[in-house]
Fold each of these.
Amino acid sequence: MSKEHISSDKLRIQQAVDQRDAQLREIALAIHANPELSFHEKKAAEWLTAPLQEAGFAVERGIAGLETAFRATWEGRAGGPTIALLAEYDALPEIGHACGHNLIGTAAVGAALSLKDAVPELPGRIVVLGTPAEEDGGGKIIMCEQGVFDSVDVAMLCHPHNRTMVLRGALACVDATFSFYGKQAHASSAPEKGISALDALINAFVAINSLRQFCKEDVRIHGIITKGGDAPNIVPDYCEAKFIIRATTVRELRELTEKVYKAVMLSAQAVGARAEIKEGLVYAERNSNKALASLFARNLESMGIEVSEPPSKGGIGSSDIGNVSQVTATIHPYIKITEAGTHTPEFTAAAASENGLIGLNRAAKALAMTAYDLCTDPDAFHQVRKEFEDWKKKRDEEAVS
């Protein structure tokens, strides 16, 4: 294809997004006004799949054994790659869409619809994957384990943020619930008959804090007490804490959790209590594909959007898209909608603001144009896949060394 033809196709893609702008805004605002927690995103999943089905996408609901997961597929012209646009749509407790998932999910849908509108003969397959429970539960991890991404050549989403970036890492992490069991007694008349589960829990916090000075600077360990007892005059027989533990890689995370879990168990033993540890799914570190990120950056810049460098250190969290990035070529770029940080009430407001909706429009355009590049430029697609296959080979060699 000539550069002129590619340019005209991309212009049509942008115009197609603009033509659907009112529809996309309505969906994003509806999801924002009806925040649903992880694995319970029934309304959001329906609002996102309805326009895809209407446009002729083949929609499968409840995939990977997850009620609110979905796959919507448009088969373009045969012979091209399979590009997955990932939709997130779960909210946070109390503060709703403080991570802007109402915009993420809608941008993926908008990009897919606009591609089909603008380039009906696109060589390739466009798949919108509805991935529930990013915030708590790891929907993408389960979907990876069920093979949902095995036939996907490239996966991407675009996340609202306070900075536009295309390359930004993420820590491996795992959540763990620590349950402490003691023996109930009257705290005043017969304290000697009790074993305090709360003292065991407090000891565990102190022991974990004592590990921090011996951890690498990228390690993050943070927790809350979810149950501290029933009454101050009763020796608590059951207490509970929930922690999130993070490290640079899954390998380093395993070494770290071994230390943390040992500290928890010994803290309980020290007061005669017993501890149990329930571990959640492991979120892997993010392997951002640089060749793919470069395509995305060029499309942002073609719209006059300035792309910033990510922080040189710190300032990163975790996401289950890291697990996807272990399976196929993946990016998780960000687009600025506010100065506020995520997971705050201010960001919740921004996710329904005019700036947030403008960010949605821009994200949909960048996703669609990048998918177009992958389907129409074999050299660009080859570079993306080669980078991933080279990384995978190196990872596998290191795993057995």
Amino acid sequence: MGDMNHFSFGWLTPVISYVMACVGSALGLRCTVRALAATGSARRNWLVTGAVAIGSGIWTMHFVAMLGFSVSGTELRYDVPLTVLSLVVAMLVTGLGVFAVGYGRHRSRSLAVGGLTTGVGVACMHYLGMAALRLHGSVGYDPPLVVLSVLIAVVAATAALWAALTVRGGAAAAGASLVMGVAVSSMHYTGMAAVHIRMDPARAALGGATAMQFIFPLAVGLGSFLFLTSAFVALSPTARERAAYASADGLRGDPASV
């Protein structure tokens, strides 16, 4: 068995990964709320942006946390195509969740479907990302902890969607994103607690790329995208604000109002 360390850089990687999960969640949930106030292509565009944000956030969280993961006696590498696929899956599956909320006619059913799908998306991304791991040994899992990790993701994702869509105000949005960040982080470390590694005495050359060669640059790029998009969404007017602007412009242009 290989000795695992999840905190090779201390609390740096867990804290940064949690922040990234919260940023992606806050942006994604905010876009979902904006979508419900829009119609036509605007609603679709907001939902797509939300799915990309949540997917990017949970992927970045996972692999930033994995920068602090090490196993004694072996180096770690990552299969590049599988790693990219885990990012695509995260965006697509969470996209199904936010679209279920955005276009569902019954709120309770939409939240249930959206939370289930988003939670499963988080889990799929995690375990697909772990399948991309290459080391001198084999990775196994404790099934009860795997099931628990998926349940944590589903329950917390559902709670975050409910909070974002039900409770109004900036504090509610911040609280929902913190809950979603807890969901992703808790799911990750519960899933990692399920891992056991059996070392292989053979020392064949490992394929794939190291974390610093591939994971770190991509995580930095996605993190920059999330922060910039968050600033854009925060500064862009809501549907209610645009209506107020249009009403004010109409009053200014109406001679009777002068």
Amino acid sequence: MNYKKTALSVNLNKVALVRNTRYLGIPSVTRAATLCLQAGANGITVHPRPDERHIRASDVPELAALLKGWPDREFNIEGNPSHNLMDVVHDLVQRKLPVHQVTFVPDAQGQFTSDHGWGFPGDTNRLRPLIAQAHAWGLRVSLFMDADPAAMAGAQSVGADRVELYTEPYAATWGTAQQAPQLARFAETARAALKLGLGINAGHDLNRDNLSAFIKHVPGVAEVSIGHALIADALELGYSATVQAYLRCIEQGRS
């Protein structure tokens, strides 16, 4: 059972992806953020990749400026800290615009989507100074990680505040005989992380079908970041109804 609230952060990459197919500025990323926040989303997530195939660098300060009007919500920026992420975040810090969390993801440039977490000890020396820099800017750092209990000590050793558990392996087994073993593995990983003082985030292919079970069985989930499925649902239901549906899924998982 999770005793604290699980926040819903809406990833807007797919809104930007559709916008970028034309030069009309629609659909608006900031308008999408506004509607999601009005519906009760606890935060906004973006992943500004170097090729700008969805979120552009210029979107980030516009969204941060919007979030100034929502001081109780959070702005999470994810990406590879060895690419453009640190420059994008530093720009916000210098402008004194809101950014609350950075999520370090080990993506290659041009990678289709995030598909694996950091590895230790291999990534230790690379990550430690980058995490220290983010902390110097006053930011919380989450590391994108596979569900491996033994890897949590590595994340803790480099100074991470949280881990974001890569949930695609769980989502891929939904409705099959492997669902329960996958959930057990994620729960074991979460317990290992919590024991080390790490917070738990989660994301990738979570949706209205599988979210409640994940929240119910995995302890201590502080935040889920959901983009592809949520935006796909919003095409049919609208932003407001979709965000409220995901918030209900979270509550059902906690009840």
Amino acid sequence: MATVPVSSSHGLKPVVVGVGPSEASRAGVAWAAEEAVLRRLPLRLVHALEWPPGAEPHPHVAHPERTWSAHFRAGGEMVLREAADLVRERHPDLEVDARTADGPRARVLVQQGAEAALLVVGAKPLNVVEQLFVVSPLGVTLTAHAGCPVAVARRQQVTAVDPHLVVIGVDGSANSREAMTFAFEEAALSGARLRAVTVRHLHPGRPTGGEGDDVENQSRAELSEATAEWREKYPRVEIEYRVKYGHPARALAHTAAHARCLVVGSRGLGGFRGMLVGSVSHVLLHQAICPLTVVPPQGGPAAY
């Protein structure tokens, strides 16, 4: 592993962001830097050197293998320097640590996540067709195996239409406690209001009349109960409740379209009529328009 010289981390867990040469990566770096400033944490920029099959990262032979290897590694360090310069230009007082690591991106970032308070990756915006057919193995792997919250920031959503709104999907399961804590912290630190959303996956559709009122009232009561502990801890956070109907991922993506970020748990089958957050988080990796943060339960696995 190689590093670009930086200042001390003072023992705090950093915000870690994967760095590459793409516009999507730069979006992730910008969003991660803002989160680090908000949370008063150091920022760690990580570039994975994915060597081609058969390549030797540390060759003990003369030209041309050694020369090619040196150029490949230097290219990765250049990407890191450019990202670090971008961050320091916008946030000159932010503590920045930049490093390269040999290996596939997913494995490198999962390993880095074991030391992180938050792991961030940038992602390009997907059109409707891509949402249906494009698979995101990196996002799925990170949300399944990283031992910390994972945020996916898309390029055109770095500046949110409503930066003072944080949305959390609530399913009523015990596994959603860490997600609730993250969402309330995000709202409190950014001065945003919090929108707690539950989705009723009912058939054939939204109930009407007296039945609809009963479902709405019961759902809001469940949301109030699910957030009660955190309302006491964060009394200054303004909270609103929303009950949506239909497919959970689509409903959450729609209600959070212009939010600062959308927060969900990584898995869990809760009491709110079967809102399966494990599969929902995977669908949201493709459909969420705003930055998406997936929070694992405490003590979740971090192996790859």
